Amino acid sequence: MLNNEVTVVVLCCRVYLQTSAISDLKAFINQHPVQWQQVYQLSTKHRMRPLVFKVLSKLSADVPAATLQQFRAYCREFLLFAVDRHQEAARIISLLQEQGIAARHYKGTDYALLLYRDIGMREFTDIDIIIDERQADRVTALMQMEGYDMYHEKYYRKYPAHFQRHIKEVTFGKACQRGRRFSFEFHYRPTHGLMDLQYSFAGLLGTDYLQRAYTAEDYYKLMVVNNGASDFFPHLRSLMDMILLYQKGPFSVPAALRPYELLWQQLAASLLGFETAAPPAHNNTYQLLAHRLQARAGQSYTLLQQARVRLSLAADISAKWRITHRYLTHLLRPNANDIAALQLPYFLYYFTKPVRLASNLLKQKK
């Protein structure tokens, strides 16, 4: 059973989707004690503050003024944040195109406009852009010329082939005038190494994926991969993404992605009252994801939780072994943190990584 604060956030989503009436939310607020600071915190974790505020602002007589002001202040700040990033993304893409580097905006304000027709309605942090993997060096040079710091630069410079094999994007950041950082992620692959399924952007969207704007169907496929197969629908925003895209359909996804499509549909039906043709689910994977969404969750899954979900979705023993092997290899493989900490021949990092991990565990226990 949902606690009162989670119920308020869920009912806001339902009111927005028109799967519940605003009178249901009003009645619940008036009949139950609500800790409003927890409502705000949950809205933050689920990345839903603009949407929750939009709904709660219609019930100003039933919601504490201080709570509405807290939401209002954030939403004003976020709108400025979104406008700044929209403009900076357009500027960077224009610079890339001037140098003959094809690039396409991905998610962020582009996605908010598609789903909500308002760049201030969908919370985001990074500016995501899709590029061709072969252009990563040129993109890096341009971003550094523009004053951006490259994250994991030592790893990228020292072992570029290894980096591009295991990391799906190059990332950059710099301070902006309003105090929060501009953060760019240039994706050359939609999938990361721990995922069961591996796709290219060309495979999902067609070979012209860098030459055209993206449709709702393009985004639907990308979000089944990103929100589902990669992240396992970690917060309510990820379910809202899928529902709002689905309403623009019907769309189809590759057969291998169908289990993840069924998952969001089952979660959306049970939590948000959004019904599709998906059969009801009570299996372990559904229960794990539903429990996290109904509790005070909203954050990303840990590595072990990801492994548990992937194992629960595996079709047979062979698939379970491949997943286990992939995660064990990932734990043993040196990463950017190891390479940044010490200057060593690559093979020696396999010996230093266990020491670093053990040291981190000891620090956490203290």
Query: Count of helices?
Result: 18
- Give Rg in angstroms: 22 Å
Would you list the SSEs in sequence order as H and E? HHHHHEHEHEHHEEHHHHHHHHH
User: What class would the helix/strand composition place it in?
Assistant: alpha+beta
Shape: globular
Let me know the largest β-sheet.
Answer: 5 strands, mixed
Question: How many β-strands, per DSSP?
Answer: 5
Unreliable stretches: none
**Spatial strand order of the main sheet:** 1-2-5-4-3
Bin the helical content.
Answer: 55-70%
User: How far apart are the termini?
Assistant: 35 Å
Our estimate of the beta-strand percent is 5-15%
Mean pLDDT: 91
Offer a few descriptive terms:
7% strand; alpha+beta; 366 residues
Question: Helices, strands, pairings?
Answer:
Blueprint lengths: L3 H14 L4 H10 L4 H10 L3 H8 L8 H34 L4 E4 L1 H9 L10 E5 L4 H10 L3 E2 L2 H6 L1 H7 L2 E7 L5 E7 L13 H5 L10 H15 L5 H11 L11 H15 L11 H11 L8 H11 L3 H16 L3 H6 L7 H17 L1
Parallel strand pairs: 2-5
Antiparallel strand pairs: 1-2, 3-4, 4-5
Helix pairs in contact: 1-2, 1-3, 1-4, 4-5, 11-12, 11-13, 12-13, 13-14, 15-16
Describe the structure.
The chain has helices at 4-17, 22-31, 36-45, 49-56, 65-98, 108-116, 136-145, 153-158, 160-166, 201-205, 216-230, 236-246, 258-272, 284-294, 303-313, 317-332, 336-341, 349-365; strands spanning 103-106, 127-131, 149-150, 169-175, 181-187. β4 (169-175) and β5 form a beta hairpin. The two termini are 35 Å apart. Helices cover 59% and strands 7% of the residues. It has a five-stranded mixed β-sheet. The longest helix is centred in the N-terminal third of the chain and has 34 residues, at 65-98. α1 (4-17) crosses α3 (36-45), α1 (4-17) crosses α4 (49-56) and α11 packs antiparallel against α12 (236-246). It is α+β, with helices and mostly antiparallel strands. The chain has a domain at 1-63.
